[in-house]
Amino acid sequence: MLEFNLHYQWDDFKAHYSGSFDKGFTCLLGGSGEGKSTLLYLLGGFLKGEGQLRFDERDVLSFEANERPITTLFQSDNVFPQLSVWDNVAIGVHPSRKLSLDDQKRVTQSLKKVQLDHLSSKFPGELSGGQVQRVSIARALVRKQPILLLDEPFSALDPALRREMLNLVKEVTHEQGLITIMVTHSPDDALFVDGKIVLVENGKLVAQDDAQVLKGNNRNAHFERYLGR
Ligand SMILES: Nc1ncnc2c1ncn2[C@@H]1O[C@H](COP(=O)(O)OP(=O)(O)OP(=O)(O)O)[C@@H](O)[C@H]1O
Predict the structure, then answer these.
(1) Which of 40, 45, 172, 224 is most solvent-facing, going by the fewest CB within 10 Å?
(2) pTM, whole model, 2 decimals?
(3) How far does residue 155's CA lie from ligand 1's centre (Å)?
(4) 1-69+147-229, superfamily in CATH?
């Protein structure tokens, strides 16, 4: 369980995020500039907030980004262009990329999981957009951190590929029991993933529900307003 009560201010934007995320897939929805990415960056340690951040009863707010039990996938720039596919994943195990045999096996397994083992000696510039994102998912897998944050890393992919990536992350989330939190502008993606949804408005979490409410059966007034219904 990831629990937080965090304050953050940037000029006129005053955020106060309070809540918790459990194992499973949660999508952060909300209009542009409402503070979805800011929450993700505070959790990931890329912005400094004040308050509390606890993971499994442990205070992790004072931890630097790389010390937190978290992997973050950004919108882009998740891979090192000068490193091979293999090295891009190996660096997730250890920055030196000097790996034990067991660690090398982990890299191979992760590459197999994302179906890139046959491309391990290629460089990112030789891959398609979807393959590049799969490299970053493979690195997230070898890092074996219990929390995965996604800031719309698949938004530039075409719909079929985006769903393939979402399926992969969903599968991994359930297999490894991860707390996965993804910022998205797409209610369709949130429905496709079929986990929890959280609505962010003006730097606050204003509603939380199952993704199914987006279908409009058991209506949630907050999400109805967000959808303009
Ligand atoms: N470090 C920062 N630098 C610049 N602006 C910031 C910073 N932190 C917060 N903001 C401001 O905070 C507000 C929320 O931004 P944020 O990117 O979190 O929203 P968002 O919901 O993710 O938006 P979008 O959907 O457009 O990506 C914006 O008004 C933004 O300008």
Answers:
(1) 224
(2) 0.91
(3) 17
(4) P-loop containing nucleotide triphosphate hydrolases (3.40.50.300)
